[in-house]
Amino acid sequence: MTIIEQVKTLLGISDDLQDELLEVIQELTESHFKAYSKQDIIPKNLAYIIVEVMIKRFNRIGSEGMTSQNVEGLSVGFALDDFLEYDRIIKQHFSSDFQAGFKML
Question: Are 40 and 93 in contact (CB under 8 A)?
């Protein structure tokens, strides 16, 4: 199953109407991950991070730049850095690869 198929399944999207938008979100999310991790590839075992961040970004469409939103007593907060909660996992993954002598291509 592709990353976009996983995202669509988790969001309950059954048609192709959002595919172009999801492709852009995927491209931007993957670019951000590579810049954040200072790596040129996204390991398969960390692809779930891309899926989870894509869902967050999709759900925030229309609320870009906001840190919080209050509507009729419902308060929603947005993370300023989508990858911060995965920081430990990302650093641990890449530092263990380098400690084992594995060089990323």
Answer: no
CA–CA distance, 56 with 53 (Å, rounded to integer)? 5
Prediction pTM value: 0.76
Q: Tell me how far apart the alpha carbons of residues 55 and 75 are, in angstroms, rounded to a whole number.
A: 19
**What are the start-end ranges of the E strands in the chain?**
68-71, 74-77
Residue 105 has pLDDT above 50, yes or no: no
Which letter, b or e, does each residue of 70-83 get, where b requires 16 or more Cβ atoms within 10 Å of its Cβ?
eeeeeeeeeeeebb
CA atoms of 78 and 57, how far apart (whole Å) = 10
Report which DSSP code applies to 104: P
